[in-house]
Amino acid sequence: MSTFPGEETRLLAGRVRGLLEANADRLQFHGWRHTNFVRRKAAEFAEKRCADTRLVEAAALVHDLNYVIEADSSPDAGRTMRAALLTECGFSGEDIKRIEAMIVGAHTEWRQRHVDVETACLSDADTLYKALPITPVLFSHKYLSENRVALSDLAKKIVNEQADKLAEDYYFYDDDVSERYGHWAQANLQLWEAVLESLDDPDVVELVEGESLT
Question: How many domains is the chain partitioned into structurally?
Answer without folding.
Answer: 1
